[in-house]
Amino acid sequence: MAGRDQYDITPRNREILEFRASRRNALRQEFLKETLNPHRHASGIGGAVFDQQLQRLFSLDATRAQYVTAKGKNFAQFAALTLFPIVSIILVINKVRRDKETEIRTGKISYRDRHVKFV
């Protein structure tokens, strides 16, 4: 039937998905083979299954300082994404509060119209 061969993705994307599925199944079979081996504990190995990808990640975390160095561009990105927004929000909030306090102290807002009252 022609309906079984029609998909709503491109052939390239279908090929990628099939490759990922086959790779996932192969890794799953390898994991099951290692975990369900009854002779594994007799050989003295025991414990968890050794995962190479996790070991790479942990090794990268341990040696990250050797590969990432502080540069001006890194600091500029940090300042633009972290420091600048925080400082700008603080300045805006302080200006709004200062203006409101000035209006209250000069009498432009009567006590009855204030949102926060002590009575």
Automatic annotation (TrEMBL):
Classification via InterPro entries: NADH_UbQ_OxRdtase_NDUFB4_su
Membrane topology classification: Single-pass membrane protein
One Pfam entry name: NDUF_B4
Record keywords: Electron transport, Membrane, Mitochondrion, Mitochondrion inner membrane, Respiratory chain, Transmembrane, Transmembrane helix, Transport
Localization, UniProt: Mitochondrion inner membrane
Transmembrane segments: 75-93
Gene Ontology CC annotation, any one: mitochondrial inner membrane
Top-level lineage group: Eukaryota
Family (UniProt): Belongs to the complex I NDUFB4 subunit family.
PANTHER family the UniProt entry points to: NADH DEHYDROGENASE [UBIQUINONE] 1 BETA SUBCOMPLEX SUBUNIT 4, NADH-UBIQUINONE OXIDOREDUCTASE B15 SUBUNIT
Protein name: NADH dehydrogenase [ubiquinone] 1 beta subcomplex subunit 4
High-level lineage: Eukaryota, Metazoa, Ecdysozoa, Arthropoda, Hexapoda
UniProt gene name: LOC107266414
